[in-house]
Amino acid sequence: MEIKEKILKSSIKLFMENGFFEVSIRDIFKQININKSAFYKYFKSKDELIYKVIEEFCSPYFDEIIGATNLCNESTKKKLKTIFIKYCGIIPYLKKILNINKFNYIAVTFITIEGLKSYENKNLVNDFNHRLLEGIDNVVEEGKELGEVLPEIDSLSTSKSIVSMLQSSMVLWAMNQNIDINLLFKTNFKYLWKSIGVSPI
C-alpha cells in the first residue's frame, strides 16, 4: 500500500472512531509510523487531508445516493423512498470499505454533511447538494406529470425540504445513537409522502 493511501485510510479510521477535532496530525504519524516530512509530502494540512478523505471515501457514496433513482424504474413513491434508504446507509457502507466497527457518530455527520463547508474547496459538497436537489426535483416533477404527486405541490420547494429533511435527520441521529436511524428515515418518509402523494402510504 502506498504511503498516501495508507495515510488516507488510517486518517478516516481515526476520524470515524475518535472524531475529527480530537485527532491530531501527530496521532496520524503514530498510527502509521511515519514522520512529519512524509505526511507533508502529500498533504499541506489537516484541512486538505479531510477534503481528500471525503473525496476518496465519501464521494463515491454520494454518487450512489444520486444515482439511486436512475436504477429504480418504479413509482415516484418508490424512487423517493430509495433515496431515503440510500441516504441512511452511510454507516454500513463505511463499515464495509474501511472495516470499522466503532464510530464517533458526530464525526460521521461532520464528514459526510458539513465537513467541507469550513474549507477552501467547497466544490464537492456544493456539487453533491446541487445534483441531489436536481435529482429529487426531477422525480417530484415527474410524479406530478404521472398523477402520483399532488398537482399543487411546488416541485423545487418540496425538493429543498426533502434535502433539508435528509440532512437534519442525520444530524439528529448523530446526536443520539439510541435513535433507530432506519426507523427515523422510514417515519420521515411516511410523513413526507402523506403530504405530497396522491396514493396512500
UniProtKB/TrEMBL annotation:
Gene3D superfamilies, per database record: Tetracycline Repressor, domain 2
Protein name per its UniProtKB record: HTH tetR-type domain-containing protein
Domain of life: Bacteria
Native source organism of the sequence: Clostridium diolis
Domain HTH tetR-type as annotated: residue spans: 1-61
GO molecular function: DNA binding
Record bears the keyword Chloroplast: no
Keywords: DNA-binding
InterPro entries registered for this protein in UniProt: Homeodomain-like_sf (IPR009057), HTH-type_Tx_Regulator (IPR050624), HTH_TetR (IPR001647), Tet_transcr_reg_TetR-rel_C_sf (IPR036271)
